[in-house]
Design a protein that fits this description.
Blueprint lengths: L1 H12 L1 H6 L4 H17 L4 E2 L5 E2 L3 H11 L1 H18 L7 H18 L6 H28 L3 H37 L2
Antiparallel strand pairs: 1-2
Length: about 190
């Protein structure tokens, strides 16, 4: 009986369909290419301080999310995070940030896969990612890594997130529109 409930939740969130995308070689190849592009985008990270940086790797997660769903987008996020560390390590590997990447990709996938992507859906999705992942989780990871009080890091991280929010919305809007057009051309 419990398994039936989990299957329904999985179907509602798009996991079952998204995971089945991995059966196609073209999806695996595209996911690998998106992972490579995401790792390259990490070279264009803008460091603001020791604890704050601006990156555009989330655009890769959005493309994977729209095209193939939360499972594929989550896997792409893991690959990007690990490739980033292997190519350009900026300190010790910390799995908490991998968890944050997985959640970011998965949230985009749940919100955008086989759904009509509207301005409000983008706004709410980005708000959830910014609050849960960027402000809460990443602050916890940084405080664990650097043995700093999370409350000391919080004001700067909130300020950075608030400043970037409108820019992220514009980027997400643009990436979703372009990806949906590509998806239509490919007949998906």
């Amino acid at each position: 009986m419990k398994n039936l409930g989990l299957n329904r939740i999985s179907q509602f969130l798009g996991y079952a369909q998204s995971a089945s995308e991995f059966k196609k070689v073209s999806v695996v190849a595209t996911a690998a290419m998106l992972s490579a592009v995401g790792a390259l985008l990490q070279f264009f990270t803008i460091p603001v301080s020791d604890f704050i940086q601006i990156t555009f790797v989330f655009t890769v997660y959005i493309v994977a999310a729209i095209m193939y769903g939360p499972a594929v987008s989550g896997v792409v996020a893991v690959c990007v995070d690990i490739l980033k560390f292997l190519i350009k390590p900026t300190g010790a590997f910390f799995p908490g940030f991998t968890v944050s990447a997985i959640l970011t990709g998965t949230i985009y996938g749940i919100s955008f896969y086989r759904r009509k992507v509207s301005f409000w859906r983008i706004l709410i999705t980005q708000l959830v990612i910014d609050l849960v992942v960027h402000i809460v989780l990443n602050t916890v990871w940084l405080s664990m890594m650097y043995n700093k009080a999370g409350l000391l890091l919080l004001p700067a991280r909130v300020l950075k997130t608030l400043a970037l929010f409108p820019i992220e919305i514009i980027i997400v809007l643009t990436v979703t529109k372009v990806t949906e057009q590509i998806k239509k051309r490919l007949g998906k």
